């Protein structure tokens, strides 16, 4: 009688374990906040290091190498160059974990050469018995039309008749990670260069004026929204007022539940320092009186233009010699690039100094 929970349970070891994990664990990291892509990539990272894992010195070639079961689960391209190569990987675009912690990849069911819309998620163990066609296999009126279809079966590549196919890939980009799927015409690139490209996109500093790419892959909008740097509408409605730092939306009557406020107020982040000392700033996209629906983009974040990821600038390039100034990997830049602030960036640093009054 009269016992309190703290009389029965000692919370100190639990608190200590939580503190240790978040405070000093190898896997508790400071978010890479260079740009929206580096944020989302950091959150999707898969590591073989850390407590209960391998160490860099002990990991051999086999552990680091690409394995057939990586297909659709772990990206074969995106991994750091250097001592960590192959030990730190990135989750593939559509991969998810199942209840046992194994990575699963989605597939469309195929019955008698007819491709259905039913989607199943399978782990590497479950998929080995299936005959899986590629996403690029030719389908006409819902049927596989080629006489022989390129398939994966028992971790091997081969060709089989369309009637033998049981599953089909969901999309050509389910093999690669988010960063690699932002590279246009990835299939024409050398794997080593694609790896460098995936890693270097994460180092792009947000420019003063973002400009969305002329050539994209269709993933730009998804990355911008899913990284969380844009402001999206929680409920549909009409824009009541907009200024640089806040957006007020009067929600639709049918979306307001009893006891809820009928107004949504979104406060924008203005000129804040990121972990990498770059500038985080949100700019409103909507005007007063605009109609918005749920999940519409209300404000751009850093490196986002009209709701699309915009890591760089669209420049006109010429491949030509210029008095030796562009020898090997040197480039020549027009003065107008500087005048138009094309690559101007804002960096915010926080400096602290201690003043002591000594007697």
Automatic annotation (TrEMBL):
Residues 233-357 form the DNA-directed RNA polymerase subunit 2 hybrid-binding domain. One of its GO terms (cellular component) is DNA-directed RNA polymerase complex. One of its GO terms (molecular function) is DNA binding. GO terms for biological process: DNA-templated transcription. Residues 29-96 form the RNA polymerase Rpb2 domain. Its EC number is 2.7.7.6. It comes from the Bacteria. Pfam families: RNA_pol_Rpb2_3, RNA_pol_Rpb2_45, RNA_pol_Rpb2_6. SUPFAM superfamilies: beta and beta-prime subunits of DNA dependent RNA-polymerase. This is DNA-directed RNA polymerase. The gene is rpoB.
